[in-house]
Amino acid sequence: MRARSCLHAPHCVWSQPPEGAAAPAARQSRFRGPGWFGDLLSVCAPSYSLSLWERAGVRARSCLTLTMAAKRYSDEPAYVLHRYDWSESSLILEVFTRSQGRIALVARGAKKPSSSFRPVLLPLQLLHVAFGGDAEIRNLKSAEWQGGHVMPTGDNLLSGYYLNELLMRLLARDDPHPALFDAYGATVQLLASQGLDTLQVTLRAFELRLLRDIGLLPLLNVQTATLQPLDPATPYVLLPEAGLREAHDDDRCSLPGSQWQVLQWALSDNATFSDIVQACVEPASELKPQLRALLHYHCDVKMLKTRQLMVDLQAL
User: Fold this and answer.
1) Which end of the chain is more exposed for a tag (fewer CB within 10 A), N or C?
2) Counting beta carbons within 10 angstroms of the beta carbon of residue 312, is it exposed (0 to 12), middle (13 to 18) or buried (19 or more)?
3) Cα separation of 248 and 208, whole Å?
4) Confidence grade of residue 71 (pLDDT, cut at 50, 70, 90)
């Protein structure tokens, strides 16, 4: 006899019967059990090898149980992006994690005065969280504050909320971006310690990294429509619908091709977030309106809520 593998259950094997052997009717009826698992076995398995398939069924069920049990994570670096009231005592959290991307967690009892979650579930603070579950909204098991910096204040705090709004609007759930997570962490640390000038450069660098990682930023070393290389001395402009093209006389902001090429190099896989920050130092003021238009276009808004809040506060 020769062993063969089942495509639908790769750990299961059955024996090939002698030619002309008929399957016993009793075994065939015993094999078709209720539910999706019985249907799967009735489709995949020959009825003449019932005893082996019975053992395979137990093995497959064990694999499914282990898979479900494995969907638990501990010591996962994370930042709280947003929170919603779920009940009188619990919260729904939108969390940005390093290995799982943006996920939703329910923090049961987090609003109670005695809850251990209450003092640590803050935005712009690095946490290590443990969570589990198979539903779209998973259960938060624990959260530990990792320290490292104080809460930003003033314009820096609003800039942090601006970053969170971008991630909420542009990141799909369960889509991990480890490099973007690290860039976010570096930006948050600067929010707590740097002045406004340095902050603007860092925000431009983060916006570029975000757009690049989620596939919304065109190549910055060629013209988008023609894929022709940029002339270092010719000015070019980045537009939401047209990508990078040669600047016209009525374009308010533009950058020479040489600076776009430097930005493209800084966004390469071999470069670091610090390289992006350095590349944004000189063109930061010209980049700001171009990236803002691109972000508003992909967020499908005329103005982000945090940006509107900044404008309203400045008008007071």
Assistant:
1) C
2) exposed
3) 23
4) confident
d(CA 278, CA 171): 25
Closest alpha carbon to 27 in 48, 6, 42: 48
Element (DSSP H or E) covering residue 275: helix 273-280
**Nearest one of 220, 224, 239 to 296, comparing CA atoms:** 239
Report whether 93 contacts 104 (CB < 8 A).
yes
Nearest CA to 238 out of 203, 298, 289 is that of 289
**What is the three-class DSSP state of 7?**
coil
pLDDT digits (tens, 9 = 90+) for 280-316: 999 999 999 999 999 999 999 988 898 888 778 777 7
Read off the amino acid at residue 128: H
Query: Average pLDDT over the chain, rounded to whole?
Result: 81
Where does the pLDDT of residue 196 fall: very low under 50, low under 70, confident under 90, or very high at 90 and above? Answer: low
Q: Which two tokens stand for residue 215?
A: 């596939």
Least confident of 34-43, 197-206, 221-230: 34-43
Q: How far apart are CA 188 and CA 156, in angstroms?
A: 9
φ, ψ for residue 169, nearest 5 deg:
-80, -30
Residues 79/93, Cβ–Cβ less than 8 Å: no
Please say whether the beta carbons of 245 and 223 come within 8 A. Answer: yes
- pLDDT (average), residues 250-269: 95
Six-digit token string for 244: 């990078």
**Mean pLDDT, residues 179-208 taken together:** 90
Task: Count the alpha carbons within 13 Å of 137 in the hemisphere toward its beta carbon.
Answer: 12
Length of the chain: 316
Q: In the prediction, which pLDDT does 223 show?
A: 97
State how far the alpha carbon of 2 is from the alpha carbons of 11, 27, 62, 71, 276, in Å.
16, 21, 26, 36, 59
Contact 167, 183 (CB under 8 A): no
Query: CB count, 10 Å around CB of 19?
Result: 5
Q: What is the reported pLDDT for 154? A: 86
Residue 79 confidence (pLDDT): 97
